[in-house]
UniProtKB/TrEMBL annotation:
It is a multi-pass membrane protein. GO terms for cellular component: membrane. Keywords: Membrane, Transmembrane, Transmembrane helix. PANTHER family: TRANSMEMBRANE PROTEIN 165 (PTHR12608:SF1), TRANSMEMBRANE PROTEIN HTP-1 RELATED (PTHR12608). Belongs to the GDT1 family. The chain crosses the membrane at residues 35-60, 67-84, 140-165, 177-194. It comes from Phytomonospora endophytica. This is GDT1 family protein. Its main location: membrane.
Length: 195
């Protein structure tokens, strides 16, 4: 296994994901739901996406970027609307004393998986992982480096989500996330239209 490929991949993916939409999505999910099932779902999504990126290698770059960006823009726009609607809902009957929705482990993990799985399509870290896999020719090292970076970021986001929800009302976190999702939708839409 190529240690340089592993370390280079970890560093690049870690830096790419720090300010990324997937970290924000994980932070929002962990502020809304119990952290362990969120982390399990998010890590499962990262596992699948990393396998796909490594397996695709450089071929992933051949997909029409505008189509991917258009779908991402629509998904983030829908996500923004849903977050705003949820933040304005007055029905708190299904929440615990911390304002978190009471739901089973499996449902939270599946929700987290689906949100992150969709958010990662066409993401810089996915494309970067594919490019690094093609460049280094060591899919195992690239997989380990990328997956380790993604799990590290997810863990940081889950821990931050637990702290933030203690000081900021959930509805404001959701509204802030909705603004971020709307910004990501506009950026992806702009890139889809104007390249």
């Amino acid at each position: 296994m190529n240690g340089v490929a592993l370390l280079a991949t970890f560093g690049l993916i870690f830096i790419a994901e720090l300010p990324d939409k997937t970290m924000m999505a994980t932070l929002v999910l962990s502020s809304r739901y119990r952290p362990l099932p969120v982390l399990v779902g998010v890590c499962a999504a990262f596992l699948v996406q990393t396998v796909i990126a490594v397996a695709a290698g450089g071929l992933l770059r051949l997909l029409p970027q505008q189509a991917v960006l258009a779908v991402v823009a629509v998904l983030f726009a829908v996500g923004a609307v849903l977050l705003v609607r949820e933040s304005m809902a007055e029905d708190d009957d299904d929440e615990d004393e911390n304002g978190r929705k009471v739901t089973g482990f499996g449902r939270i993990a599946l929700t987290s998986f689906l949100v992150l799985f969709v958010a990662e399509w066409g993401d810089a870290s996915q494309l970067g992982t594919a490019a690094l896999s093609a460049r280094y020719g060591d899919p195992v090292a690239v997989f380990i480096g990328a997956f380790a970076a993604l799990v590290t970021i997810a863990t940081i986001a889950v821990l931050l989500g637990r702290v933030i929800v203690r000081y900021i009302p959930l509805k404001w976190i959701q509204r802030g996330a909705a603004v971020l999702f709307a910004i990501f939708a506009v950026i992806a839409g702009y890139e889809a239209i104007f390249g």
